[in-house]
Amino acid sequence: MATSGTAKIEALYRYPVKGLTPEPLESVELRPMQTLPFDRAYAIENGPGPFDPANPQHLQKIHFVMLMRNEELATVRSLFDDSTETLVISKGGAEIARGDLRTEAGRAAIEDAITRIVTSGLRGRPKVVVSPGHSFSDVAPKCVHLVNRQSLTALEGLLGAPVDARRFRPNLVLDGLEPWQELDLVGKKLRTGGITLEVFKRTERCAATNVDPETGSRDLKIPSFLSKTLGHTDFGVYARIVDGGRIRVGDTLEVTD
Predict the structure, then answer these.
(1) Average pLDDT per consecutive 10 residues, the chain (257 residues; last block may be shorter)
(2) According to CATH, what is the number of the domain 5-34+139-256?
(3) Range(s) of the chain covered by CATH 2.40.33.20
(4) DSSP track, the chain
């Protein structure tokens, strides 16, 4: 399979609160060895958990409210304001909660809403957690997550059903690579202007991808299908930001060694 070529950035997303709504971006500033600004800056612990804000460590997703077990999260929309760190949650077009996540009262308002939304799988009162500079990504290194549009199209053909890119929680959706080419880019670099991304790991998928991001319905069995069809559960790749700068939807990345 080719490990060269170019790819256009079709979409950019960030996830200010782990497990909640992807937020589309038109452009974003990349910083070396960091995530996108505010990407997974907050998470919601599923009842009493081990996260220590004074000594933040990477934890498995099982400790947090998440789509893999709490698919009701997909039935709400959230919007985060960077300047005030205020989160607004709505359902059916109506606002149901608003809170400044820097304050105890603001976090409590969001926790109350999550308690009402998530009807199964809660191990106690949800708790909004944060530690400055920490990211609640599924992997410990600070990075971005890339998904290939051509692989999505190929997967749709195999499944015989449409597949929303947001099931895979990408930061960048790339258009122009060959189907599955991204899986062979580990160790390769993607460059545009002075920006360099270095692919370092395939993404092993979990049951969160079975959940339709619009309806919250568990309507597909993507990891098991990938395993049976392709012999693995990988879809998408992680990349470190080596050299930063501003990227935009429509920018072209070149694959290099």
Answers:
(1) 85 96 97 98 96 96 90 93 97 96 98 93 95 96 98 97 96 98 97 97 95 89 96 98 98 96
(2) 2.40.33.20
(3) 5-34+139-256
(4) ----EEEEEEEEEE-SBTTS--EEESEEEE-TT--STTTT-EEEESSS----TTS-----GGGB--TTT-GGGGGSEEEEETTTTEEEEEETTEEEEEEETTSHHHHHHHHHHHHHH--S---SS-EEEE-TT----SSSS--EEEEEHHHHHHHHHHHTS---GGGG--SEEEESSPTTGGGG-TT-EEEETTEEEEEEEEEE--GGGGB-TTT--B---HHHHHHHHHSS-EEEEEEEEEE-EEEETT-EEEEE-
